[in-house]
Amino acid sequence: MRLLVTGAAGFIGGRVADLLRESGHDVVAADVLLDTAHPADASLPDGVQRLDVRDADGLDRLLPGVDLVCHQAAMVGNGVDAQDLPGYAGHNDLGTAVLLAAMARAGTRLLVLASSMVVYGEGRYVCPEHGDVLPLERTPDDLDAGVFDPRCPICKVVTGWATVGEDAPIRPRSSYAVSKVAQEQYAAAWARLEGGRCIALRYHNVYGPRMPADTPYSGVAAVFRSALERGEPPKVFEDGGQMRDFVHVDDVARANLASVQRVAEHPVGVSAYNVCSGRPRSIGQVAESLAEAVGGARPEVTGEHRPADVRHVVASPDAAVEGLGFTADIAPEDGLRGFADAPLRPTR
Question: Which helix (H) or strand (E) holds 160?
């Protein structure tokens, strides 16, 4: 099958493109080298051509004969401040819309879309008395007092977390999250109009070799790694009890391969799947694991908090097992140990 992979010079996109080639696919690889993820003097890897997905003419040159698009290109991270809003809207929202319009012109009706767990916002919470609840927003008074878990809206008791399935409410909390929701919705509109089939892969916390180093847009695992390389303790916000699912980039690539192989069998529309390890860890545990692996400074739990931060979001892997035949191979304890001294991608 002939595939276009966007974002193919990136941390995830590069590994996806490599695995698709290794699996016998004819891959057209493209990337624009965004400066939030690549050094200013970065050059394109061999076999990757420069393309901004907002360039309709460039897409019209690449898409004829392409059976499927694997869309990994995006501006990532949760944003630094409101000045990032146009960047997310431009690269993620507009870029996806331009790509989908070009796919319609070329008659390409299969799409694998890199989405994210951030579409859920806060995860799933359970009150001991009232069961599943939509929790209250965490208050400054609770946060300042070290009460970090959200409260039940009915009885005000502190809730506990549970795993999130793909049918969970969509409640984005950041500019990046809003843009990922928009990408899924644009894909749904395209699918209805063109009879297209899309698998949206909601990546959880992806880590692994060649992850971009410490920038305001980096994932937390890279931020911890970079601190340890500087001889500093990783700084952990709140009490370190925030629960996440950390999934290795090699498993993410395998989820994309499974989606490429199965998307044509899916119904018209967008089918969403969590991509996760199924073995959650707290942020504090991840910092501890990385520090122990390199003999570095013990993490510093700061108690600091930020208004838009999510307390817990932990995925259910069940739908991906059923719909894609995908189960992560790499346990977090093994993957994080290897990541502790793996090379990072410089971003400056």
Answer: strand 160-162
Q: If 0-12 CB within 10 Å is exposed, 13-18 middle and 19+ buried, where does residue 94 land?
A: middle
Write down the mean pLDDT value for the chain. Answer: 94
For 74, 87, 113, 206, the CA distances from 77, given in Å and listed in that order, are 10, 11, 17, 12
For 282-285, the CB contacts below 8 A with 24+ separation are 282/240, 282/241, 282/242, 282/243, 282/244, 283/220, 283/236, 283/237, 283/238, 283/240, 283/241, 283/242, 283/243, 283/244, 284/236, 284/239, 284/240, 284/241, 284/242, 285/240
CA pseudo-torsion sign 206, 210, 211, 217: negative
The span from the CA of 303 to the CA of 305, in Å, is 6
Contacts of 250 (CB under 8 A, 6+ apart): 15, 208, 329, 330
pLDDT above 70 for 216:
no
Q: 198 with 271: CB under 8 angstroms?
A: yes
**244: helix, strand or coil:** strand
Cα–Cα distance for residue pair 209/225, rounded to 1 Å = 11
H/E run at residue 277: none
At 213, the amino acid letter reads A
Contact of 262 with 76, CB cutoff 8 Å: no
Q: Is the separation of the CB atoms in 62 and 4 below 8 Å? A: yes
Phi/psi of residue 205, nearest 5 degrees: -75, 100
| pLDDT higher than threshold 80 for residue 181 | yes
68-110, pLDDT tens digit by residue? 999 999 998 877 788 999 999 999 999 999 999 999 999 999 9
Q: How far apart, in whole angstroms, are the C-alpha atoms of residue 275 and residue 262? A: 15
Cβ of 158: how many Cβ atoms within 10 Å?
A: 15
Length of the chain: 348
Q: Which residue has the higher pLDDT, 38 or 75?
A: 75
Q: Residue 57: what are its φ and ψ, rounded to 5°?
A: -65, -40
CB within 8 Å of 327: residues ≥ 6 apart = 278, 317, 320, 321
Helix and strand numbers (H, E) in the chain are 11, 16
Q: E strand or H helix at 307, and its extent?
A: none
